[in-house]
Amino acid sequence: MAIFRIEKTQNYTVMSNHHLRNPALSLKAKGLLSQILSLPENRDYTLSGLSRINRESIDVIRTASFAELPGKMPL
Questions:
Q1: Distance (Å, rounded) from C-alpha 68 to C-alpha 71?
Q2: Which of 16, 17, 24, 28 is the most buried if burial means most Cβ atoms within 10 Å?
Q3: Residue 17, Cα to own-chain centre: how many angstroms?
Q4: Which pLDDT belongs to residue 2?
Q5: Consecutive sets of 10 residues in the chain, 75 residues long: mean pLDDT of each?
Q6: Among candidate residues 41, 45, 42, the one with its CA nearest the CA of residue 65
Q7: Closest by Cα among 70, 6, 3, 9 to 36
């Protein structure tokens, strides 16, 4: 599969690869954390707020966040 890299100057997120390469995290947890890191600081980070911007239920987000993410992020 080809990888296309594009120089971005707006509407993009830079983050560490640390959580993306962590084999202890599920794909759901990696995706949730990546999404959280891409959102503005004043965003609604509650379970219901994250559920509204995703297809997942509150229970799925709770499982990915509380069960797996380091530090048991307070959502």
A1: 9
A2: 28
A3: 12
A4: 86
A5: 81 86 88 90 88 90 78 49
A6: 45
A7: 70
Counted residue by residue, the chain has a size of 75
Across 41-70, b (16+ Cβ under 10 Å) vs e yields: eeeeeebeebbeeeebebebbebbbeebbe
Indicate the helix (H) or strand (E) that contains 49.
helix 47-52
Classify residue 19 as exposed, middle or buried by CB count within 10 Å of its CB (0-12, 13-18, 19+): middle
Name residue, tokens 């084999």: 23
CA distance 15 to 37: 8
Contact 43, 52 (CB under 8 A): no
Query: Are 49 and 43 within 8 A, CB to CB?
Result: yes
pLDDT of residue 14: 83
Beta carbons of 47 and 37 less than 8 angstroms apart = no
